[in-house]
Amino acid sequence: MKKTIFVLLLVLTMVSSIVAGTLAMYTASIDNLGEGSVVAKEFVFVGDGTDSFQHGIKIAPTEIVRWQFKVKNYQNYVITETDLYYKLTFNVLAVQGKAAIQPLTVAVKDSQGNVLKSVTGTGTFDVLGSFPLSEVGQENEYEVEIYWPDGGPVDIDYAGNNYGTAVKVDAIASQLPLSEGHENPPEQKDVSIRYETLTPWQNGQSGIYQFEYKVTITNNSDEAIKDWSVAFSLSTDRITQAWSNAKMVAGLPEGMYKFENPGYNNQSTDNILPGQSVSFRGPAYGMGTHAIGNIIVGGSNVSDIGDIDLTCEFGKSSLN
Q1: CATH number at residue 284
Q2: S-S: 239 plus which of 115, 120, 284, 295, CB 3.0-4.6 Å?
Q3: How far apart are CA 22 and CA 11, in angstroms?
C-alpha cells in the first residue's frame, strides 16, 4: 500500500534587507553570515512548516551581490511520492520605514546562469519549477543577483540610512501544476516597460557577440503621454541604434541611453494613449542578459515618471 504523501503545502518566507552603502566609501560590505560566507539556503518541500532567514547587505553603485539557494524534494531519506510542482514568488519592495533603492536590479538565475526573471526598482515576479516522480531525491539550484548599475550623479539620491530594499520570497508546493499570478497582485503602476532580447550570435569576423533588443512602453494611466521619451542605463551590453519607431539620442555618457518618439506627426507613434503601447527595437553588442535600469519616461504634458513596472526577458527565439 502506498504511504501517505508527505508533500502537502509549504509556505516559506525569505527576507533579505539591502542597505545603500555610504557614498563616502563606495565599498561593498556583507554582514558575517555562516562564518563569513553568503548564506546558501535550501528550501525542502517535505511535510508542513515554514522556514525563514534574514540578513543585511550593504551595496553601492557598480557593485553586485549574489547568493545561491536550492529547492529540494527530499529530506534525509524521505522523498516526495508524487510529481511535485512549486512556485517561488519574489517581491522586491522597500524596507519598512525606508524608501526603495530604485536603481537596483534583482534577477534570479538558474544553475546554468540563465536569467529567469528580473525587476528594477520594485516589483513582483514568479519562478515556476517541478520535480517528476522519481525514487531518487532531486534538487534545483538558483542564484539571486542584486546589481546597482553606475547611474552617475543620480546615485547620490539613494545614499544613506533612509533607503533600503528588501527581497521577499514566498514558496508554495503542490501535487498539481501551478501557474504564475498572485491572489493579491501589486497595484499597477502608471507605466510599464518590457525589455526583451534575442539569443546572441557571434560575428564570424570580429568574434564579438551581438543581439537584437526590443523595448515596449505601455501607458496604464488615463492620460496620454504626448511626445514620449524614455531614458535608461544598461551595463556591459551596448545598444548601437534604434531601427524604427524611435530616435536614439547621441552624445550621452557610456552606458546611458535615451530614445525619443520618431516625430512622424502621428498620434499612434508620437504619443502613448491610455491603455496603449509603443515599441522599438534595434541591434546591440553583448550577450543580452542584463536588465535596463534607472528608467525615466517623459512627455511634453507629464512630469518625468520613474516609478515603473519593468519586465525583462532574455535570450528569446523571436521578438514579436
Answers
A1: 2.60.40.290
A2: 284
A3: 35
pTM above 0.85, yes or no: no
Q: Specify whether 130 is located in the same domain as 205.
A: no
Q: Which residues pair with 197 in a beta bridge?
A: 213
Do 82 and 210 lie in one domain? The reply is no
Cell of 140: 534545483
In a domain, 4, yes or no: no
pLDDT in tens, 52-65: 555 667 788 888 88
Domain that holds residue 206: 191-316
Residue at 158 is within a domain: yes
